[in-house]
Amino acid sequence: MSQDHYCVLGNPVEHSRSPWIHTRFAELTGQSLHYGRQLVELDKFHETLHRLQLEGCKGCNVTVPFKFEAAQAAKVLSPRAALAGAANVLSLRADGLYADNSDGIGLVNDLQNNAGVPLRGKALLLIGAGGAAAGVLGPLLEAGPARLTVVNRTHDKATALVARHQALAQSHGVALDAPALEALQGSFDVVINATASSLSGAGVPVPASVLRPGSLALDMMYGPAAQGFLDWAQAHGAQGRDGLGMLVEQAAEAFALWRGVRPPSAQVLAELRQQL
After folding, report:
1. Fewest CB within 10 A of the end CB: N or C in the chain?
2. In degrees rounded to 5, what are phi and psi of residue 91?
3. Angle at 31 between CA 25 and CA 36, to 5 degrees
4. How many helices (H) and strands (E) are present in the chain, helices listed first?
5. Distance CA 89, CA 63 (A)
6. pLDDT per position as a tens digit, 22-76
């Protein structure tokens, strides 16, 4: 019986745990597939996609820095990918590429189900305005926090992201704003780092005053890349959480899209934490 092929596209990509996660999902749900990694040269994303289509690849996860390009490459976008303008899941269909974004629902599921932190009525801070932040803002708003603040070193990018999501925020009764970094005030129940500052070892771009005692501070990275942010959070009385749960939950969404079956994400997250 021939296996369907899937892969994760990124640069860098060798650190990705996605092959292990999807292989484990397949084992636990009785699916036959092969899942690999694909390092993509920075100017070869569209070329790589075309080659994978010709080779019969069924779908891809997309990681940094290609999430905006993934949305642009698609013939059809899911509503959440269209709103984000970024995609992390591609289905390579006979009639063209279908793009989705499972980052946000993956993050929300991890926060609410795995970390046990309900978001309704809370104050949220999202740091960053790139592809990762764009992918999660919509589902975070749909979770119904009281307010959600977006900050970014380049203020224009944050204001543009917020403007695109303002109607959604209003429909869910969420106060959404994007102050300049130096004008950021107040403290938050949940602080989410969606920047790549962790990867480059740069410092946390916001003051520790954004944290409340017992706040949850989540970095979308995991492993050594997240450690600086987690140490900062814990040193200031917050509860640190890495992006491993989000990684597993967004993968579960992608797997369900591709295979039509929902894998046991909590079990796979527990196994992955034991490994690491």
Report:
1. N
2. -105, 125
3. 65
4. 11, 12
5. 9
6. 999 999 999 999 999 999 999 999 999 999 999 999 999 999 899 999 999 999 9
Pick from 161, 206, 202, 152: nearest CA to 180: 152
The whole-angstrom separation of Cα 6 and Cα 9 is 10
Burial string for 47-80 (b: 16+ CB within 10 Å, else e) reads: ebbeebbeeebbbbbbbbbbbbbbbebbeebbeb
**Closest-CA residue to 150 (of 106, 65, 225, 210):** 210
Query: How many angstroms separate the CA atoms of 127 and 181, rounded?
Result: 10
141, two tokens: 């708003």
119: Cα within 13 Å, side-chain hemisphere: 28
Catalytic machinery residues: 67
pLDDT (0 to 100) of residue 199: 61
For residue 271, give both structure tokens. 């196994």
Is beta strand 59-62 parallel, antiparallel or unpaired with respect to 89-93?
Answer: antiparallel
End-to-end Cα distance, the chain: 33
Question: How far is residue 27 CA from its own chain's centroid?
Answer: 24
Strands 96-100 and 89-93: antiparallel
List Cα–Cα distances, 226 to 113, 125, 217, 244, in angstroms: 21, 17, 11, 10
H or E segment at 258? Answer: helix 244-259
For 211-270, how does the pLDDT look when each residue is reduced to its tens digit (9 = 90+)? Answer: 999 999 999 998 888 999 999 999 999 999 999 999 999 999 999 999 999 999 999 999
